[in-house]
Amino acid sequence: MKYLSQVMLLLFATFISIASFSQQKEPAKMVAGIPVNYDEALVGTYTLPDLMTLSNGAKVKSANDWLTKRRPEVLRLIEENQFGKMPPRPADMHFNVFDKGTPVFDGKAIRKQVTVYFSKDTSSYKMDLLIYIPAKADKPVPLLFEISFSANSTSVNDPGIKAGEVWTKEGKKIPAASGVSFGKLNVEPFLAQGIGVAVVYYGDIEPDYKKGIEFGIRGKYLKPGATWTEPNEWGAISAWAWGLSRAMDYFETDKQVDAKRVALQGTSRLGKTVLWAGAHDTRFAMVIASCSGEGGAAISRRNYGETIKHITDTSRYFYQFAPNYHNYGDDPSKSPVDAHMLVALMAPRPVLLQTGDTDVWSDPKGEFLAAVAAEPVYQLFGKKGPGTDIMPKASQADLLNTLGYFMHAGGHGTIPSDWNIYLDYIKKYL
Ligand code: GCU
To answer: Whose Cα sits closest to atom 12 in ligand 1?
Structure first.
């Protein structure tokens, strides 16, 4: 009972912080003592770093120039200045497929569960993957792979999932409350179309709070006595993205999965995470980023909604980024990177930016403008982005291009109808 109420409180607190912006009628004018602008006239003017010019001044003229010269520069700049450096795959990582294929959903799918151990020691540093394969599949299947705020056992409606655990702020893992979650993922429409579904709980990789580093995977890499102060040290978003790459390491070994066709999906801070994971690890074939906002797909140089100063305030989400990112709070124009660069790193792979018209804190227009600015890179590969700089209306579904944009009518996060859009997008591009 004590556990249950702790979990409820923890989830409730997180949920409030996630959902508050969609519920607020009047968005807060001040966050962490920093004013928030919602007036387009006061956004300011800015010049974005040029995607098509190399640091030596030479111009990017071809897809090959992009892939071999400019892309590595942009990747390094984002790593150094925004999310922080990830370590390589650990040598002693290993997998345990503890659920090898149980028929579920009236025989429509088989369920697999796998523990990925990040080190030799099996008592800590591990994550559980939950995977559904369409029962009818006679060859490896593409995957929708979601990184979730909920433990696997509360992510999908299936009583056979191993009971998950979530973190308390004291760094203890406690059972995930049954019945409390951020809403269940409806996997059956994907399975019916021959698409497998996999889920991972982000907290298995790294807890989502300031002191999380002591308990998550980043702690494993901290040298004894060291603190997290290196300017390009990895923040929690890099840790979550790193975990996704470790999941990909597993998918590459699973004969039922087509690892070359994995679409990552995540919402909000996990929208930022999937963008960074897909940018960093080109094994991911597609990214669907929901309401990723500041530090994700929204242009930081626009003073609208959340800014670098808000997000990297030490009372807020400083720990999710490299310490360097904080340096650009007072003047984002000093940063060598912006969101169009993060988006462009996906090229030529499909990326869908989904926003919400009332989710002003995440700046849906800032995400659209990042897509507009990243489009020239897609064009190098003969692929399409928005093709216009006129901001689309809510629910307008004609910008679902390889570099796609879709704004639902509503607030922060995914709404049920977004999943139909994702399904169509996956069918079209994966
Ligand atoms: C806060 C934060 C956002 C983040 C969001 C979320 O609102 O300011 O940057 O995207 O939480 O993860 O729900």
So the answer is: 269
